[in-house]
TrEMBL record:
It comes from the Eukaryota. Residues 121-140 have a biased composition (Basic and acidic residues). InterPro entries: Znf_CCHC (IPR001878), Znf_CCHC_sf (IPR036875). The lineage of its organism: Eukaryota, Metazoa, Ecdysozoa, Arthropoda, Hexapoda. One of its GO terms (molecular function) is zinc ion binding. This is CCHC-type domain-containing protein. Residues 307-323, 330-346 form the CCHC-type domain. Residues 82-147 are annotated as: Disordered. Transmembrane segments: none annotated.
Amino acid sequence: MRPAIQGVSAPIPEPSAVFQDKKALKIEIGKQIEALIKMRKEIVNSEIEANREIAPPRSEIASTSKASAELINNVQKVEQWTTVERGRKKKKGKNKAKERQQPDQSRATSCSQSRQIQKSKSREQNKADSIVKRVKEAPRRPPRTASVAIKGISDQFSYANALKRAQGKIDLKNLGIETSKIRKAANEGILIEIPGTDGVTKADDLAAKLKEVLRGEANVTRPFVKGELRIFGFDESVTVDDIYNEVASVGKCRVNEIKVDPMRSMSNGSVWVQCPFAVALRVSAQGKHRIVWTVARVELLKARPLQCFKCWRYRHVRHACKSDVDRSTACFMCSGEGHSARTCTANLYCAPL
């Protein structure tokens, strides 16, 4: 059983008459609110009137505002001046430290600039060296064209008239020449270039025809890019004719296109050979050749720089030489006159260029 609730029981009070009538309650609350609003307005108005009686006139307000502004400005100026003075005192110490650090910084900047300049120079030098190395290491290739050179005997020779006469008497189609190119030569003559694998034979035929047309007026030649070989390691029984025959047979050229220097008296035979560059490439490709009873070695020499045989300087030829020095009859070994380098017995001497 649930226990009995302890306490005293009382009857519930009945609601009052005010709470019973809700409408009367709302009306009463509304009246009270309106009375409070009126009271607030009266208090605000009374405060405004009191402030008007206490407030000074506008002129006094303007003067007081100006004075306060001046005071504020003075205060600001003083504050700014004091802060600047403090900053100056602090900056003086910093400036002294900076002045002490300036030479070190200038030295550091100069060192960094010099390093950058050295780096840029080294980069440029490396680029130049790489270009030179690539040019030196680049494989030499034979020319793709064969050429015919025309050089007038007299200074009054007209190349235009000579070409017109040659064009009227020589038909290139009959010689099998379909394309050709004419350009100025280094000796102030003209070059007729003929491309193609069989350009050599076509150029020979054209040179023969031009010799007949321009006989006595101009020299017609067949120039070609020359290559130099050194053949060594053969015995004493090998002669110059053997060298001629071996180079002509291996290089597939004519004997008159080859130039052989006299034999040198060495422990092993050695000879210098000049021939068309294509022939030199064919001969040097094998490396070794059997000449009579011995096996000789072949070496392709490096290309010589362009040199003038009048002043002995480089990068130009005799016809374009502007120097007053004439060493065309001098010896290459001793720079003396009256003999050649082959028969020179004097000491070596390099002439000043």
